[in-house]
Write a structure and sequence with these properties.
Order of helices and strands: HHHHHH
Radius of gyration: 12 Å
Number of helices: 6
Number of domains: 1
Number of strands: 0
Distance between the termini: 16 Å
Largest sheet: none
Helix content: 55-70%
Structural class: mainly alpha
Length: 84
Amino acid sequence: MDTQQLKQLAGCLRALLEDSAIEIGHGQALDLSASLVGLRNWPEVQAFPRRVGAQELDLLATARLAYRLAHKYKHEVSSADLLL
């Protein structure tokens, strides 16, 4: 995975949440996408490019994102659904 892919996924996350009437900003979406690679926020993504590059988009990655969506935004979605 790379930062460009994470940026694209952040846009998809915004659209997913908007469909559920949850509006977030671009920065918040970038921070959410950071969870896919096991990081807390976008500045960490930029600080650890090797870690980002070593990660793959798999069920473990989407499980981290699903957890964050459930706890921060009360939006329940399965990790398998996020992988699609």
